[in-house]
Write a structure and sequence with these properties.
- The protein has about 375 residues and is of the alpha/beta class.
- It has 3 domains: about 15-115, no CATH class; about 170-210, no CATH class; about 220-380, von Willebrand factor, type A domain (Rossmann fold), CATH 3.40.50.410.
- The protein is built from 17 helices and 10 strands.
- The chain has helices spanning about 5-15, 20-25, 30-45, 45-50, 75-85, 85-100, 105, 110-115, 120-130, 135-165, 180-190, 230-245, 270-275, 285-295, 315-330, 350-360, 370-380, and strands at about 170, 195, 200, 205-210, 220-225, 250-255, 260-265, 305-310, 335-340, 360-365.
- The chain has a 6-stranded mixed sheet, with helices on both faces. Strands 1-4 form a two-stranded antiparallel ribbon.
- β9, α16 (about 350-360) and β10 (about 360-365) form a beta-alpha-beta unit.
- α10 crosses α13 and α14 (about 285-295) runs parallel beside α15.
- The longest helix has about 30 residues, at about 135-165.
- The chain starts with 5 loop residues before the first helix and ends in a 6-residue tail after the last helix.
Amino acid sequence: MTPDDPRAGLERWRLILGAPAERRTGGLDGPDAARDTALQWLYGRDDDLARRGERRGTADGREGGDGPSTLAVVDWLDDIHRLFPRETVERLERDAVETYGIDEIITDPDVLLRVEPSTSLLRAVLRTKHLMNPHILAAARRVVEAVVRDLTERLRPEVRRALTGARFRRPSRAPLARNFDFRATIRANLAHYRPEDRRILIEQPHFHSRTRRHIEQWQLILLVDQSGSMAGSVIHSAVTAACLWGLPGLRTHLVAFDTQVVDLTSDVTDPVELLMKVQLGGGTDIARAVDYSAGLVDNPRRTIVALITDFYEGGDAHRLTRTVRDLTGQGVTVLGLAALDEEAAPSYDRDLAGRLAEAGAHIGAMTPGHLAEFVAGRMAHGGRTA
């Protein structure tokens, strides 16, 4: 059927409105019928459909009567990859895992071989990998590797550009053309402007150094809450730390915490291995993690502690506030980030976040690129507000 066929519009409405619309739109056939079956297999589980009397199948996806035959998860994945564009496939797989809890997508090795790697599936793998046997874990690692590779390729240029672009523009006596400072030269020679010629006579050219001057080592300490709700930030923290690793003038630490503190700095160069060691879930003791970071600080005025958490403290909130106040009082820059990911859409305890802000912390949510820009600004301004 061509897009100009009047039936095409009716079939699109039938796909949108579901089976009850058939008395007005007519039935489906061919690829549209297959798409409807795939959508019904997933979204037919929605309780709202049952309440409206529109669900044809059972809660576990089995179809009754003369409806379409039952689909296994692996068959459903094959179908949606054949019938829908990639963006739609990723949305369907995300809904299957996050909305309807179809665990076979991350626990069946045959399914894991077919699934489209995505951040949402990586989050699901990280939440359940401690329950996987070695065979399934090996298949799940493919998802981890693919998503980390994609994120690294997209984030590394942005993160490194922010840091390497933060040059210190210092006056230079070396009269090299490539170092000519146009703005400083104009300002210094405005008194020699000749209106009749509409020209400025340059009596004192200015040049600047294009190379970064030697600076004291800076520290960036990433403290990452590994409670279940922070999965996206854990992923992006691991990749961001890997992107920052080895940059001149910056020493990066990565520390994960729940009720315990685990220093993962030695694994930063391999974010896949790092993520395979993370255990999401459990309680949260932010105060203990911040205390640990205080012990890592070498030069307070050249240290940034980025605390990535939802601020739901299971430990001692008073002790946490006191430690943050002590750090900021020494000159440490403390960032409290409710999210570090591409969306930077946080959900967090605003009361505790407000108390940490009063103690001197900067509170917000950032993408990895914005974090890199913040760090670069601090380094460029010697610790003063950028």
